[in-house]
Write a structure and sequence with these properties.
The protein has 10 helices and 3 strands. With about 240 residues, it is mainly α. The chain folds into 2 domains: about 10-125, Orthogonal Bundle (Helix Hairpins); about 135-235, minor pseudopilin epsh fold (3-Layer(bab) Sandwich), CATH 3.55.40. Strands 2-1-3 form a 3-stranded antiparallel beta sheet. α1 packs antiparallel against α10 (about 230-235). Belongs to the iron/manganese superoxide dismutase family.
Length: about 240
């Protein structure tokens, strides 16, 4: 079972969102009945997907999910466990590892793998079969207050995702009392900025290249229109 920091307000809403989105099965955040010491001693493990590998077809194929989740996401978990074994980070929660190593060139490998575990789990929960459509009323009101309309928000998300140079992420975040769209490069995450992530779109090539080749915009627009999990975002927004 993976580790979480439920005492840190910066992560509290994200934890609740993960639990609701995956019925308590996301191992990153579901701590069950373990004591704090038992949680700290546990190795990081690959969280289960919140749906079957073929559940996002035809937008994202089972083949892509198999490689993306089973090879890339798992690889970050395996790498992190090797990197932190016997170090000061061995008993830290995933989020504490991220915040403790952010911006430290000598700890870049640890940060990158920890952040990619977190980012990917958040991304899987940002998607759902038969997603898209209209956000829940409370979130829609927040979106309209910040962007003018849901369509304007989606266009800004698409622009951020498509324009991200190289590998990275597009995020819908809550910054204070306003929603905004940001993009991060490589493994970077909003968790180090004080902003609350609500949704994520992965634009690393391994997220889409088997299905879309170099047509990143087609992948992004299909995700926005057909897979986006607005309920997850609404839960995270509070």
């Amino acid at each position: 079972m993976n580790k979480t920091d439920s005492n840190n307000p910066a992560f509290r809403l994200d934890r609740r969102g993960f639990l609701i989105a995956s019925a308590g099965s996301v191992a990153l955040l579901a701590t069950g009945g373990l004591s704090r010491s038992a949680q700290a001693a546990a190795l990081h493990v690959l969280p289960p997907l919140p749906y079957a590998e073929n559940a996002l077809e035809p937008v994202i194929s089972a083949n892509t999910i198999g490689f993306h989740y089973g090879k890339h996401h798992k690889g970050y978990v395996d790498n992190l466990n090797k990197l932190v074994a016997g170090t000061e980070y061995a008993d830290l929660t995933l989020e504490k590892i991220i915040t403790a190593t952010a911006g430290r060139a000598d700890k870049a490998a640890i940060f990158n793998n920890a952040a990619q575990i977190w980012n990917h789990t958040f991304y899987w929960n940002s998607l759902k079969p038969k997603g898209g459509g209209e956000p829940p009323a409370a979130l829609k009101q927040k979106i309209e207050a910040s962007f003018g309309s849901v369509d304007a928000c989606k266009k800004e998300l698409a622009a951020a995702a498509v324009s991200q140079f190289g590998s990275g992420w597009a995020w819908l975040v809550l910054d204070g009392d306003r929603l905004k769209v940001i993009k991060t490069a490589n493994a970077d995450t909003p968790l180090t900025t004080g902003m609350k992530p609500l949704l994520a779109i992965d634009v690393w090539e391994h997220a889409y290249y088997l299905d879309y080749q170099n047509r990143r915009a087609d992948y992004v627009n299909a995700v926005l229109d057909r897979l986006l999990n607005w309920e997850f975002a609404s839960t995270n927004a509070g």
